[in-house]
């Protein structure tokens, strides 16, 4: 069995009537790791949010399909059960709900009624992943993300990724705010997921994450579009030279200048 | 001048009722005086809730012996849920309507002088002790018309007495089961913890009268003497037909502690007052309460801690979930009296609205008559956060399940505080039932 295919075509997304994404095309297949880079505010999180179904983002044009199924027709929870996962840039805090209770509910949500994960099995697998990610056991009994440090939240997102085993995951700045050790641990977790049945879209600003997780493809997003794609060497060049050369190469003007010229 | 008598009970009735119960003279006198006062006293005035057309005064008041309960198997399923599966039936009191239907206290605690018995037996066997505390320093007979009515017509309850330096490890549990509505319940719970003692007491009020109307007029008085600790848990679960007035008060002396965890799950209209007096220096109290409002019910909860002693510490926590067309007001009143130096008063009240038609309000009030103190309050009324829902649903949880988690999480700080695991589970189930 080979992996799933997430296909994004000509995606236009608006937030509060302002168009942010202006025609994104991207395909992520099981077995592939894609990195998306790009300057601040160019729409990377918007793309992630639109794929997952964030209530504030409105898709005005284009399609998103997962193995041919129309993702845009699905509710947020249906998208998750269909195999999508988004590690969020800013995960919510859920007071009063322990990380382990939440995880068990989430795992069971994907399973049939009557086929819930046995408690002992759940605990065993949770302990294993906590261990693998160097997370203190007591995080499982703490309330989900409440009072977690920035780094702890990111680790917790990867814990959820490992527990829920989606087909396609989008990781939005999973490396931001991580110290070197945490970066290694988080990368280790993500690399462990690598298989023909797992595809991943990694949004990042920094090459350093890609030192640990080698992407198969690197895409550059600017002004709401994927403007350039390449292999790992593209990320290295961006790290060294920034984005100016792409703008020059493609004749992209800054939006303000473009408006003035119009 | 004669005042028109609006109450359906007269002095002869009260006298006869008291005599039938073999009550000591002081009690008969107290009842009789209370009835005299009732007519002229005002109804309680809960802040921001109009109760003038609620029926608190027109009810039946018969006394019919109910059958004793020999084993847990005789209880209906809904009641059994309040016990752990391996419940020993020890340190347990079950009141069926107004009858003490089951009562047990371990030999060990009996030997230590602990008293855990129904209020009528207590009045006969420990008359002086009950008289000393009954409606004197905590709830006054003349506080309002309903407390007077309670004093006049009290028809059930329990007396808990913990002698000096006795520490009770296992919780004492009382179940007040209002099986039928032949009589209103005017229940009185009296808890006295002598110097250096400690006790955990948990009570459950249960009825099933969804349509038949009746009244519950409940008074609790808790006394924690120097260095005593009382943990008081409750799940109130009267059905929609019962209109409830519940007045729970505590008095804490030096170094004493009174902690409340109240699950206020009635389905009928309810006025609840929970007031603690921190009289002694270095005394402290936590008053935690949760409620779920549904249907058309209106509820008003006041939690108040008044701090007289120095270096006292008070924390009020209220959480409410509103659905349907329910209306609920939460009043949190922290008061530091003049002389209560170095005291701290904190409070937090939060209401979560699940429907358009529900109404909720949280009123934080801090009254401070002393300079050298610390205090803080937080209050909010809001809806379920759509970003929280998005986050949970993005992990595959259906909307309803995600909402369920958020609600349980919201109520958890109080629910987790209930001292008996089976009661905590039961409260969780009641919440579940009321929310969906
Ligand atoms: N509620 C909103 N109203 C108006 N504009 C918004 C709103 N939310 C986001 N935007 C705009 O959408 C644009 C894209 O934002 P997005 O978060 O997708 O950027 P990003 O590429 O993820 O940036 P970063 O690298 O800083 O995370 C930004 O210009 C942002 O200001
Ligand atoms: Mg972003």
TrEMBL record, chain A:
One of its GO terms (molecular function) is ATP hydrolysis activity. CDD domains: ABC_FeS_Assembly (cd03217). The keyword ATP-binding applies. PROSITE patterns: ABC_TRANSPORTER_1, ABC_TRANSPORTER_2. Pfam families: ABC_tran (PF00005). Residues 6-248 form the ABC transporter domain. Belongs to the ABC transporter superfamily. Ycf16 family. This is ABC transporter ATP-binding protein. The lineage of its organism: Bacteria, Bacillati, Bacillota, Bacilli, Bacillales. The gene is sufC_1.
């Amino acid at each position: 069995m080979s992996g799933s295919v997430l296909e994004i075509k000509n995606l236009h997304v608006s937030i509060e009537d302002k168009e942010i994404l202006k025609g994104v095309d991207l395909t992520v297949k099981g077995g592939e790791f894609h990195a998306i880079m790009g300057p601040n505010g160019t729409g990377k999180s918007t793309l992630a949010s639109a794929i997952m179904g964030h209530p504030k983002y409105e898709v005005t044009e284009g399609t998103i399909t997962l193995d041919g199924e129309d993702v845009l027709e699905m509710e947020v929870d249906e998208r998750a059960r269909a195999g999508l996962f988004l590690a969020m840039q800013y995960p919510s805090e859920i007071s009063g709900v322990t990380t382990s209770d939440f995880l068990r509910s989430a795992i069971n949500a994907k399973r049939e009624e009557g086929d819930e994960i046995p408690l002992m099995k759940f605990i065993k697998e949770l302990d294993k992943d906590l261990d693998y990610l160097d997370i203190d056991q007591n995080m499982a009994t703490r309330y989900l993300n409440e009072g977690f440090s920035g780094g702890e939240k990111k680790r917790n997102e990867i814990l959820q990724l490992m527990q829920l085993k989606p087909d396609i995951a989008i990781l939005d700045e999973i490396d931001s705010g991580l110290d070197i050790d945490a970066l290694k641990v988080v990368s280790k977790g993500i690399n462990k997921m690598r298989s023909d049945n797992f595809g991943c879209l990694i949004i990042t600003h920094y090459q350093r994450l890609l030192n640990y997780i080698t992407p198969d493809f690197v895409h550059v997003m600017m002004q709401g579009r994927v403007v350039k794609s390449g292999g790992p060497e593209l990320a290295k060049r961006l790290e060294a030279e920034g984005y100016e050369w792409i703008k020059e190469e493609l004749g992209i003007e800054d939006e303000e200048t473009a408006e003035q010229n119009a | 001048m004669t005042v028109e008598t609006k109450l359906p009970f007269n002095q002869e009735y009260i006298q006869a009722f008291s005599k039938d119960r073999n009550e000591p003279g002081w009690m008969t006198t107290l009842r009789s005086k209370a009835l005299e006062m009732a007519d002229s006293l005002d109804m309680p005035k809960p802040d921001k809730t109009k109760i003038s057309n609620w029926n608190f005064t027109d009810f039946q008041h018969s006394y019919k012996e109910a059958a004793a309960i020999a084993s847990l198997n005789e209880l209906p399923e809904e009641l059994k849920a309040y016990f752990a599966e391996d419940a020993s039936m020890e340190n347990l009191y079950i009141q069926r309507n107004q009858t003490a239907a089951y009562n047990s206290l371990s030999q060990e605690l009996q030997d230590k002088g602990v008293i855990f018995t129904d209020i009528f037996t207590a009045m006969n066997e420990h008359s002086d002790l009950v008289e000393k505390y009954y409606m004197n320093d905590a709830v006054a007979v003349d506080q309002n018309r309903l407390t007077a009515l309670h004093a006049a017509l009290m028809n059930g309850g329990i007396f808990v007495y913990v002698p000096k330096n006795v520490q009770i490890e296992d919780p004492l549990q009382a179940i007040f089961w209002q099986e039928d509505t032949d009589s209103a319940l005017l229940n009185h719970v009296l808890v006295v913890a002598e110097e250096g003692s400690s006790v955990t007491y948990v009570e459950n009020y249960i009825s099933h009268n969804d349509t038949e109307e009746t009244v519950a007029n409940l008074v609790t008085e808790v006394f924690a003497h120097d260095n005593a600790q009382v943990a008081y848990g409750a799940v109130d679960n009267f059905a929609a037909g019962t209109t409830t007035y519940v007045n729970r008060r505590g008095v804490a002396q030096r170094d004493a502690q009174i902690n409340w965890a109240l699950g206020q799950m009635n389905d009928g209209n309810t006025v609840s007052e929970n007031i603690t007096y921190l009289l002694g220096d270095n005394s402290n109290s936590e008053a935690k309460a949760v409620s779920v409002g549904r249907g058309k019910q209106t509820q008003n909860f006041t939690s108040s801690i008044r701090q007289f002693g120095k270096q006292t510490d008070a924390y009020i926590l209220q959480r409410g979930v509103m659905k349907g067309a329910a209306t609920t007001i939460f009043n949190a009143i922290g008061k530091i009296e003049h002389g209560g130096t170095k005291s701290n008063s904190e409070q937090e009240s939060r209401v979560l609205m699940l429907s358009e038609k529900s109404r909720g309000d949280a009123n934080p009030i801090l009254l401070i008559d002393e300079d050298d103190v610390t205090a803080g309050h937080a209050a909010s009324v809001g809806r379920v956060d759509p970003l929280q829902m998005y986050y949970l649903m993005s992990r595959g949880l259906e909307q309803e399940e995600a909402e369920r988690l958020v609600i349980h999480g919201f109520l958890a700080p109080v629910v987790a505080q209930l001292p008996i695991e089976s009661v905590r589970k039961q409260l969780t189930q009641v919440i579940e039932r009321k929310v969906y």
